[in-house]
């Protein structure tokens, strides 16, 4: 439980710090989002490399998605994905209705200003 609280606090402080640097004019808002995306990508890549180093190679995309939805998500977030959808053309959508990293932010109104300015791709 303490590890979870520390992780959530660290995550919130990282996001807050990146946005504060944009507000102080150090970097523009679009670069802040890119910086957060790159940090998230690198952390996710490192976690996947660590979790899969002792497993057999995946046969196809479906095996990869099963691993992410069951094993990876359960280990990192202590729950399975709520829903997995695909268009059968290589596009997968993972749905977590109670994603802990966003529930803290969505509970308050202080982030609404940033959300409206964000240019999500």
Low-confidence stretches: 116-121
CATH class assignment of the largest domain: Alpha Beta
Total domain count? 2
Structure classification: mainly alpha
Shape: globular
SSE string, helices as H and strands as E: HHHEEHH
Average predicted local confidence, pLDDT:
76
Largest sheet: 2 strands, antiparallel
Q: What would you give as the CATH superfamily of the largest domain?
A: Trafficking protein particle complex subunit 3
Tally the helices. 5
Strand order of the largest sheet: 1-2
Describe the overall structure.
The chain has 121 residues and is mainly alpha-helical. 1% of the residues are buried. Helices cover 64% and strands 7% of the residues. Strands 1-2 form a two-stranded antiparallel sheet. Helix 1 runs antiparallel to helix 2 (29-52). A hairpin with a 5-residue loop joins strand 1 and strand 2 (92-95). It is globular, with a radius of gyration of 17 Å. It has two domains: 1-53; 56-115, Muramoyl-pentapeptide Carboxypeptidase, domain 2 (2-Layer Sandwich).
Key structural traits:
121 residues, mainly alpha, two-stranded antiparallel ribbon, 5 helices, 64% helix, disordered C terminus
In short:
The protein has 121 residues and is mainly alpha-helical. The protein is built from five helices and two strands; from the N terminus they run H-H-H-E-E-H-H. The chain folds into two domains: 1-53; 56-115, Muramoyl-pentapeptide Carboxypeptidase, domain 2 (2-Layer Sandwich).
């Amino acid at each position: 439980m303490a590890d979870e609280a520390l992780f959530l606090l660290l995550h919130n402080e990282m996001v807050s710090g990146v946005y504060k640097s944009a507000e102080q004019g150090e970097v523009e808002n679009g670069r802040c989002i890119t910086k957060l995306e790159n940090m998230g990508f690198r952390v996710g890549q490192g976690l996947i490399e660590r979790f899969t180093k002792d497993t057999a190679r995946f046969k196809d995309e479906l095996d990869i998605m099963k691993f992410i939805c069951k094993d990876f998500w359960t280990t990192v977030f202590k729950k399975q994905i709520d829903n997995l959808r695909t268009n059968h053309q290589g596009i997968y959508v993972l749905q977590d209705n109670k994603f802990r990293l966003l529930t803290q932010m969505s509970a308050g109104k202080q982030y609404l200003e940033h959300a409206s300015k964000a240019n999500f791709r």
